[in-house]
# Entry
Amino acid sequence: MLDFDGVVAQSTNIKYALLLDAARHVGMTDLDALVTALDSELNGADRARVGRWVAEYLHSAAVAESFVDHFTREFAARSQAIDPITGFSEFVDSMRRNEIRVCIVSLAPTHEIRTWLSKVVEPDAFVGIFGIEQGPKPQTTRLALARIGTVDSPVICIGDTPADLAAATGAGCRFIRMRSPVGDRCDWTGKCVPTATSFTHLCTEFGPEFGSLR
# Structure
C-alpha cells in the first residue's frame, strides 16, 4: 500500500510551496505561522484541511474554498513536471510479475493520481487507488484493506510522514518510511522506523519482505 506524494511522486516540495502560495493568494501575510503548522499540527493534512486552517487564522470562512481552488489549479499546471521516485516503474513491474497486489492510498484526489500515473505506468497495475474522496487517511487505509481483501494477509504500507505511520499502525500494517523533503521536516523523535530513500533502495533493502506478500 503506497502513499502518493513523496512516495510515488516527487511532489512534496511543489505542493508545500503551493500551499504557501495559496495562503498568500487569499491574503495571509504571516506565512511563518503556516510553515510552523505544516510541520506540526498540519503534518500530512490535505489541501482542504489546510484551507480551513488558513480561513480560521484569517477569521474568514469564505477564503477556504478560494484557497483550495487556487492550489488545485496551480498544481494541475505544474504536475506535468513531477518525476516519479527513482525505481518506481521497475518496482511496479516487479510486483506485477510476482503477483503481489499494490494499491495507492492518498489524501490527493483520485483523478489527480490517475492523471499523473497514466504518464508513468499503467493505472490498471494497481488493485485500487483510494483518494481523499473516501475520507481521512486512517479511514481510507482501512477501507482499502477491506476492498482489496487483505484482512488475513500481511500488508506493508509505505509513507513519508508520521501521519502515514499512524494510519498504517492503526490498521495493523507494517510501515516503511520513504524519505521525502516534507517528511524530513517532520519530527520523528522516538519513532524508530525502517527507512528507504527510493524504490531501488526499498527493493534492495526490504526485498524478502515483499516476497512474503504473495
